[in-house]
Amino acid sequence: MATTLSHSAHKSRFNISTHLAQSLVAPIFHHEYSLNVRDATQVNPVCIGSGLDAGSYGIIATIVAPGIVGLAIWITFAIVRPRYRQVYALREWFVPQDVRPNRLESNAGAFLTPNTPMRPSIQEDVSNAGQSMAEDAQLFPSDEELSQRTLWTSFLVVLSWSLAGLAGAIPLYTVNIPCLAQSNGPALYTGVFSVLQDLSLLRLLRSIDNLQLASQSYLALAHLNPAESMSIPHTRIIVLACLAVVATMLPALYLTLKEFRVIVALRKRWLDIRCGGRDMGWLSADNAPGLAGMGEQSLKEYLVKLGLRSVGRPNRRNGRHASSLSHSHWNSSQSSSSADGVVEVDVQGLFSICDTQNLAVLIEQRDEILENLEVAETKYISSFRLSTPDPSIADLEVRIPPPTKSNKPYISHPLPLGGTNRTRRSRKTNPAHATSSFAPTAFVAPSQYYKIRGMRSITSLGNTPNDSGHLSFSDSFQQRIVGSRFQEVNRDSVDYDRLPLGSQLILEKSGELGPVPDPRFYGPNHPTEPSGSETLVEGSTHRPYTETSQGGGATAPRIPTVMEGEEGWTDLMRDVDLDGFMGRDTVRLVETPDQLPPARPRPPRIVNTPSTDRRETFPLRNKAETNAVAEVVPPPHLRLQPRQPFVRPASGLDYDDLGSVYAEINQWRSKLKSINSEIVDAQHDCYTDIAEGTHVKGWILIGRGLKHIHGVELIEGRAREDIRWDVLQTGTHILDSVGLGIVIFSTTMYLLLAITAVTGLSLSTAPNFAHYLEFLQPLSNRNDLASGIATMLASAIAATLFAVLVFLVVRRVAFWSPHVSISAVQLLSLKIIYYLFFLVVAGVIVIGGAVLYSIEAISQHRGVTKSLADGSIYMAMFALAYILTASFTIPGLLLLRPVRLWKVLRAEKTAITPRQRFRAVYPGSSDTANGLGACVLAIIFASAFSLIFPLIGPSVVLLLFLTLVAHRFLIGYVYCRTLPSTGGLAHIWLLKRLATLCTLQPLLLGLILLTRHFWLEGGILVGIALIAAILVETYCTRATSQPRSLNPNTCDALQTLSHASKQCPDSATEDETSGLGSPSRGYRARGSMASVLEMMSLTLAVVPSESRQRGILPLQTETLDDLTATERAARTHPDAPPHLPPLSFAVHSEETAGVLYAPELIAPCPVIWLPHDSAGVARSEADDLEKYHDLRVTLDVQASQDVLPSRNISRAQ
Question: Where does this protein have compositionally biased stretches of type Low complexity (predicted)?
């Protein structure tokens, strides 16, 4: 009870002293305020809960405007995701079937709950490693999954900070503490404190300042003890210091360091088990000039003599998968090696990299030739279509009629009898006879057109069509051969008399060939079937065909007999162009109108139905009389075809067009065969250079302890895809490093100036700031929505754009670095981005904003430290607007990927061949900085302001949560592991930096308290923060270091190798090397090489291991090269069946998986990739290319033609 009364007494005394201080200090502010004439338009400050000001309006606008944009982005993604599986469902069809996720539903919100954990698990028991690819993917998470774990850890850390700030700090700042409007009053010149600053540490500090000012002069008049008046604020400072250490720093350090230990242990297991304790490195010839003249075999023997290479073959892994060696076997081999004292530095694999720039140019040219050949083949294949004798869905061609202004139906004009005269391409030929035996274009149609069957003897040429060896036109279609060929009819047929050469023939109803009806007796819309299939009046027949005399002269028309009582005939002879119909070279009998036959009456209407091929695809309604019986015509998809379908050219193409297309095929096919031989010769020369040690750029090493070899740069990804082959060829230049440094320095200066300008704009409404920058006074004199939008929303958007621009520039110029691995470049870009965001963005906003805020105190040399502390707190509101803008836009853009979507759609639109479509949708590599870039800056602000300005915590939590949701979907269905994993190397470094950031909050709070002369509390906080930072750095450094002492023999061998590699070769060696490398040396025999592997084994005496028994390194990725694994690429596209049987053979990329020579050296002859068609033209072309031109061909796998029909049949059964 006594304690309660004492506390109440202290509280009442604090309230009395606070109100007294306000009543005494307010006149002083009012007196200073009245001295300025410009203060007549000064806006009055507002307490929280009493209204809004420009700052609060700006924060609300920052929530609303980016929130609407972000919501639109998320809704757009929910709509377009099911429609573009080639962009948003890559892992459902691109990766191997063992690691494909379950297909996501097509509803709009399915991406919010994918089959991917929010926090991927890490298993400590890896005894099952190597059994399958899916098992290894679970035991050793990829870098993308480790990024998800890092985001989850950051989310938990910031969530704990937010709870501590909202539940612990805000009550300390607001309970029984007057607002800033009451404690400060109006500013001296312009500007006010924002309403949101009432929820920050600034409110408590201003009250403490007022109490200290009042206690020095006026509290003695009220008979109050100054120590008692400061006791309650001092208690709150102590509680706040305890919150900064106990509730924020220690839990954050625990969560961060716990995750750090897990990732470090994972990386050790990844190095020991997944990589077998082996490293991959690059030794440049510039760093080892003494080894440049040695051949590959000689260098291996030299390493054996030094004791740096084991004589026996390296351990191979047996099993179906590339990592089939068990954990126990690895442990036993490693323990035996260490126990027996085997070499600690063991170079198990060595691959020489020679100069292949000319070979790369040839391969680039071959790729262009291959593309042109495939484009020509695709055009040729698409020039044919599968047709049916009767109209069906296969013949359906939807044609859009031209727009007409009237509402009347469009009726086409009848076609002329002679057809249209097409303009043919002029081709000059020799008019003399027997001057050339050059044949026309070999194939202007599929080869089925030219297959000869049913051969008869020469004596049977004059037989009638009824001979047993003759096949009718209908019987030829009923054979198993799909397609058509040219058909002929006996010129001396007894049915049609003698026919002129070149007469047009059509199929009659009986299945035999017959001539086209004479156009003199039929109108332009005559049926294609001759009169043999049409019955006139009962008992009457006619044959309006020409009859040829025995002498071979001109033919005269045979006039049919006309029955009496028939209607009159109409003479069409004068309106018909017989030249266009029968040809210009045909001799016409009738030359003058006097010789024309007399007009005949029109024959009666045909009583039977018209030809089926003139019938509409979908018959119109019968407009006959009601009592007439309508003809029942089945729809096209229900019609039973009388004969098998056949292949015909597409509409609008003639044989000239097909001939030009096939001429392109011949051209590019010849070039491809020619450049293939050139590339084989160039590859042979490069392998000879490797064997002789000439033109060598360096060596790729695989083995143990490579980091101890002088001049070796480790390749952390330990995979072929992680090597920058262009850097190996061109080497590293000092200009690249200088250019990188200049660009980074220029970017830093640009970002520094841009963020400083944006920070100054956000301070426009700060007290007395606009007085020194007059162009900001219009914003300072207004306290409305427009001022808030200009100072908060516009500033936040500009700062976000500047940060994104710098992010893109850094990622681009990071590849100017001399690193030979992509993983090292990505780690370098992550480090540069982190330090730019930490030192420039966050540093300028906090420190630079504090300096700009204190421009008045600096000019007056009064209260500079207090003003700097107040300015750092005031800038937290701009940091809040910045994070809110990023929270609503960055995760949505990360999920939508608009630039990637636009590029894919544009590339698909221009793609013609299957290879072009495959390359259009090929997934890009992911980067750790993509998902963590914005979150790093948000965590920096959260570590600084979570307690000082507690409203910033929920905004950072929102950003991390939305990023977690987006990133979970991306790693489960979008990101493909085309780049190798590094075992969490970048995440270990980032977690180390986050652990250090956890000490930033006590440090900043301690410095602020020191400005208010709280020496004890401020000193303790600063000391704790510095000690914790030192301990964190020491612990993380020792946890990641791998101290290992080498035995004296290994050290001597390494020193000998270093000395031999540094010295220049002597004169004899130099002469010998120059002799080997000179162009004047002996001619190199070039034999026919069956494959690149055979060439390699004959030249280097090296046999690459099989795909099922290859070594541990290099590691396998999900990369799919369409040039080395064309058969797999043909089965990999969004429309392919989800489950296909495995290939019965190993592709080239699997056969050379353990070889680390330059890609140009192991590049095989490309496989031509043709599209699949239902007409069988692509299959015919593939057979011809493989049989007659020795070119490998594969066809695109289409689910609708190849797999779905059989699967539907099985379901029906």
Answer: 321-337
Domain span at 872: 54-211+231-278+720-1040
* Residue 1114, preceding peptide bond in cis (omega within 30° of 0): yes
CA angle 371, 372, 375 (to 5 degrees): 85
Whole-number Å distance between alpha carbons of 1210 and 14: 87
Residue 384: its H or E element: strand 384-387
Q: Which residues are bridge partners to 646 per DSSP?
A: 387
In angstroms, the CA 552 to CA 491 distance is 12
Q: Which residues pair with 349 in a beta bridge?
A: 702
* pLDDT, tens digit (0-9, with 9 covering 90-100), for 414-469: 544 444 444 444 444 434 433 343 444 444 555 544 444 444 444 444 444 444 44
**Contacts for 588-591: CB closer than 8 Å, 24+ residues apart:** 588/554, 589/554, 589/555, 589/556
69/1072 Cα distance (integer angstroms): 70
Structural tokens at position 439: 């044949």
Q: d(Cα 507, Cα 495) in Å, to the nearest integer? A: 14
What interhelical angle do 876-896 and 54-80 show, nearest 10? 10
State the Cα–Cα distance between residues 765 and 733, nearest whole angstrom: 51
Q: What separation in angstroms does the CA of 120 have from each of 89, 143, 468, 877?
A: 20, 11, 77, 35
The answer to whether residue 1143 is domain-embedded is no
Amino acid at 1117: T
Distance CA(1082)–CA(576), nearest Å, equals 78
795 or 411, higher pLDDT = 795
The amino acid present at 156, given as its one-letter code, is: L
Q: Which of 307, 340, 338 is nearest to 1049 (CA)?
A: 307
At 327, the pLDDT band (50, 70, 90 cuts) reads very low
Whether 226 is in a domain gets the answer no
Domain count, the chain: 1
How far from chain centre, in Å, is Cα 964? 20
Give the pLDDT confidence of 849-890 residue by residue, as tens digits: 999 998 888 888 888 999 999 999 999 999 999 999 999 999
Please state, in angstroms and rounded to a whole number, the distance separating the CA atoms of residues 1026 and 1019.
11
What does DSSP say about strands 1193-1195 and 1168-1170: parallel, antiparallel, or unpaired?
parallel
CB 994 within 8 A of CB 939: yes
As a whole number of angstroms, the longest Cα–Cα distance in the chain is 148
Gap between the Cα atoms of 840 and 759, Å rounded? 12
Q: For 551-609, write each residue's pLDDT tens digit.
A: 344 344 444 444 444 444 444 344 444 444 344 443 443 344 444 445 445 555 444 44
Given the DSSP bridges, would you call strands 384-387 and 1168-1170 parallel, antiparallel or unpaired? unpaired
Closest CA to 504 of 418, 415, 577: 418
Q: Are 183 and 206 in contact (CB under 8 A)?
A: yes
Q: Which residues pair with 821 in a beta bridge?
A: 723
Give dist(CA 917, CA 894) in Å, integer: 24
Q: Between β-strands 505-507 and 513-515, what pairing exists: parallel, antiparallel or unpaired?
A: antiparallel
Q: Report the distance separating Cα 1018 and Cα 941, nearest Å.
A: 21
In a domain, 1, yes or no: no
β pairing state of 346-354 and 696-704: antiparallel
DSSP 93: T
Q: How far is CA 282 from CA 244, 616, 713, 1175, in A?
A: 48, 72, 5, 52
Asked if residue 338 has pLDDT above 60, the reply is no
Tell me the chain's radius of gyration from C-alpha atoms: 43
Angstrom distance (rounded) from CA 842 to CA 879: 9
CA distance 918 to 923: 10
Could you say which DSSP state residue 347 is in? Answer: E
In a domain, 873, yes or no: yes
CB-based contact 394:385 (threshold 8 Å): yes
pTM for the model: 0.75
* Helix residue ranges, H only, 720-853: 725-730, 734-762, 777-780, 785-788, 794-813, 822-835, 843, 849-853
Question: What is the C-alpha separation between 201 and 894, in angstroms, rounded?
Answer: 35
